[in-house]
Specification:
Layout: H1 2-25, H2 35-55, H3 66-84
Helix pairs in contact: 1-2, 1-3, 2-3
Length: about 80
């Protein structure tokens, strides 16, 4: 059970870092057309799309807070896994 807990926490950590990398890349012009960005986007889209649907009507303007919300939710899930598994 301990191995499963460590594996889940590490997987969540990797997903958090991928979301951060994609967010940083989105700040630079032209990177959204790169293959690397598309790979990161394919990896993070299943997590970000439901958050955008829920919070999309509250997020207006040029800033997208979806990655921040996703990271916070993933950190909470990671803590819950650590506490209860």
């Amino acid at each position: 059970m301990e191995v499963l807990k460590i594996a889940l926490i590490k997987l969540i950590d990797i997903i958090i870092w991928v979301v951060i990398a994609k967010s940083i890349l989105s700040w630079f012009p032209g990177t959204q057309d790169s293959k690397f960005y598309r790979i990161l986007d394919d990896f993070t889209s299943p997590i970000e799309i439901p958050v955008r649907k829920i919070f999309g009507r509250f997020m207006t303007g040029p800033l997208d807070f979806t990655p921040m919300v996703v990271i916070i939710v993933l950190m909470i899930i990671s803590r819950l896994v650590y506490m209860f598994l």
